[in-house]
Please model this.
Amino acid sequence: MIIESASLQEPNLKGNIPDGLTPDLLRYWEVLDQVPDPEIPVISVVDLGIVTRVTVADNGAVQVILTPTFAGCPALKWMEKTVREALLEAGAPEVDVQTTFENPWTSERISEAGREKIRNFGLAPPPRRRPGCVGPDLEALAHAVCPRCGSENTSMKSPFGPTLCRSLHYCFDCLEAFEQFKPL
Amino acid sequence: MTNSNDFPTGPLARYLLQIADDQLIMGHRNSEWTGLGPILEEDIAFSSVAQDQVGHALAFYEFLQKECGADDPDQTAFNRPENRMLCNGLVEQPIGDYAFSLARHWCYDHAIRLRYESLSGIPNPVLQSLAVKLQGEVKYHTFHADTWMKSLLQGSEESRLRMISAIKEVWPLALGMFESWVGEDDLLNEMGPNGHPWYPGEAALRLQWQEHALQSLQGWGVDVDQGALSKLEPVLGGRQGFHTEHLAPLLDEMTAVFRLDPQAEW
Model:
């Protein structure tokens, strides 16, 4: 039987930890907020928005629902493993990690804090989706904001970069190549 | 060694298996560009598209396992004999030159886009949200394919002629993506949450695809001879398990490591 459960519906400015949690759930969310994304280690799986639900059963068993950024993300199995290990280490008696597409990931799920960390890492955070735009806003890719100098005088070199979630860009002002976390 | 011989039953499961098999084989072919692309960005692009496609195949194989009683995804993907695979002839072809692979990528990903659009109207909520999710990824594929088709069709005389010749070569194979299949009629009558049928059927999908493709080509300045195109015979058979001669060697290579130890934990 489930006694406590919390879902992340909307990203939230403070981070991506839902409001109004019981102490137990808050502790587990805070543990998850320390689990890094393996490809961009400055951001946690919580900031990234891939943790969609944490549930604690009455026997203390924890269930975590993850959702992949991209369906072919090769880091997913690794993240399932590190999430499980982190919660066991934090004292959860039993941990079940499931990956589903029920609350599909979009780049809008990245928290404000996460966007800032992505920028400090040297990657342009994904542009916010304009109202009325269905699916990723690819037109915004043509003018990604350079994470070094803030210029919009940039061009996209390729929608596919070194990982599935990054595109390749060039800044005409600082004359450097940069990468953007792709909008999805 | 046993094979995963049992198809999951029911028309929906069969339809999803066709999509998954197409994505798996297309992804495998596209991955053959890794290290060989004409420029580094294209090497990465085809490799990324391949990675997406294998991921999409996995998502459908997982759904088939959870909801339709299919074997686990590795067994379904790597342990079926050729005549139990349901992919189409287009995806089976070797990569050819870059023009061929690009023309195929363009034809294929626009067809997948239409399939996902239709699938996002399905009553099953799990498939519905999966289809919406995957549509976002395919938007990058069609964007990439359109960008290069346009550039090369409007580039030099040589690039234009090579693209046109690749399109002609790909066309009959592309029409074969819309081969009618056993059980199709049962899906046609299934209503989506909005009270309309969610699956238009292969003939309707082919028309939608063709109309969009011809419009794009004309927009890029290609003088399309519709009469000649309509005389081309589609390459059929894949949906019934009859494949072009290129699938068997591909399966041999793709499953070589798996077959060393089919029960291995990866």
